[in-house]
Amino acid sequence: MEDNYEEYDNAFVGNLGDMGYGEDTQAAGEPASQIENKPKIFLMGLKRSGKSSIQKVVFHKMLPNETLFLESTSKVVKNDISNSSFVQFQIWDFPGQLDFFDPSFDYEYILNNCGAIVFVIDAQDEIIEALQKLHQTIAKVYQINPNIHFEVFIHKSDGLSDDHKIDRQRDIQQKTTEELADANINVHPSFYVTSIYDHSIFEAFSKVIQKLIPQLPTLENLLDVFISRSRIEKAFLVDVVSKIYVATDNSPVDMQTYELCSDMIDVVIDVSCIYGLKEEEEGLGYDQESHSVIKLNNGMVLYLKEVNKYLALVCLLRESNFDKHGLIDYNFICFKKAIEEVFSRKTTKAGAKKTIKKAN
Amino acid sequence: MLRSKILPQILNQAINNTDTKGVLLMKDDGSLIACSDATTSSHNTSKIVAAITSNIWTAYNRNSDLQYQLIDCEEGRFVITRVASLLLCVYSDINTEFGLLKLKTQKLREYLEEPLSKVEHVQ
């Protein structure tokens, strides 16, 4: 974990004023320069591979069907989601036809505070060209900033059968790894099969974001302790706006559970938007009092609690283990306190680093 | 239906001097139905007290014949008893004698027993 910290610090803190997370105290209107300094995630890939659709569906709640009518992106779209979400990263959507390595591009500056590059490959299309471009991109980026994580989304998987999906993934994975090994590049991209028509894209994005969160092991440990003490089956720490999960416990993630949990957030927010807000009042319908328990007819209980402005804890547990609601609430209070401590520690550490830098 | 605004006011009557710190009405699983605190301490304290005391109650109430439970802690004293299908908890600082605290709980219980037993048992 220490190593993780150091790596992250070297990669970002030097260039960054801000750690890239939302804090409760943060003012809504930030100066533009600060936003510019947020760590970035780049969406790249050939044209028509679905980059803008991913961005729209994950961060703008666009319906997947509506993305059919999206125009081709013609210039780099910088998407700042930092004011509404815990995920305080800037998503840059690169147009497919753009030659990123045009010498007139100041890519060294751009790449220096980039956290991850998401490369989108259309699984329903020919992959040779895409793989070439992927290889090219990795080779160039690696020279400039070897700390960047590479994530490959094998996208539009909804049109493929299950066997076909696995074949495609194996094919792409194998070719990429071989090519990288041949070129002596020590990068290990992660591969995800995604589609905007189900939750796979959210899950894949969650994994991408998690790699950029240095506190992840601590959060996971906290969740583990919490669920074992409260006899909970599965717990997610979810970003309310984007439904990306920032952390989960160590048991394997079941897609259906995650879908259920993210649907629950929708239900809670919709209900409190309709009944919770006063007339003329604007807002997300999500505040400190947000708390919900849904009993399912299969003997399971969904439990949601507010953690902070951006995050909610969503748990799934058996109804027979839900006999002591009060104790679970109490455990949650302890958990929440710990989470607050984790994030406040991070900001003070970053602050201390900055002062040292100034003194030098 | 319980009248959620009146109930804390009734509970508040038990806090007539400084020694009683709070009165809670909760379900067996520890979820609060109504509460009243002497100080304007955060609502969280009541939730924690409710969670822990109800858990102790259910742990000792194996034969369902527990009438009163008195807990003596380093910084306070608790009396818990059953009212209809709910639990009533009164707690105070260390200087209050148990007799007084128990009497107070008993009176409150007598007062609440009848109206609360009319309320449908919600599980």
Automatic annotation (TrEMBL), chain A:
Keyword hit for Nucleus: yes
SUPFAM superfamilies on file: P-loop containing nucleoside triphosphate hydrolases
GO biological process: cellular response to amino acid starvation; cellular response to starvation; negative regulation of autophagy; positive regulation of TORC1 signaling; response to amino acid
Catalytic reaction(s) noted: GTP + H2O = GDP + phosphate + H(+)
Cellular localization per UniProt: Cytoplasm; Lysosome membrane; Nucleus
Record's keyword annotation contains Aminoacyl-tRNA synthetase: no
UniProt record similarity statement: Belongs to the GTR/RAG GTP-binding protein family.
Protein name in UniProt: Ras-related GTP-binding protein
Organism per entry: Dictyostelium discoideum
Automatic annotation (TrEMBL), chain B:
Protein origin, superkingdom: Eukaryota
Source organism of this protein record: Dictyostelium discoideum (Social amoeba)
Name of the protein described by the UniProt record: Roadblock/LAMTOR2 domain-containing protein
Family: Belongs to the GAMAD family.
GO molecular function, one term: guanyl-nucleotide exchange factor activity
Entry's Gene Ontology BP terms: cellular response to amino acid stimulus; positive regulation of TOR signaling
PANTHER family named in the record: LATE ENDOSOMAL/LYSOSOMAL MP1 INTERACTING PROTEIN
InterPro entries: LAMTOR2-like, Roadblock/LAMTOR2_dom
Pfam families in the cross-refs: Robl_LC7
Ranges in a coiled coil: none
Domain Roadblock/LAMTOR2 intervals: 7-92
CC per GO annotation: late endosome; Ragulator complex
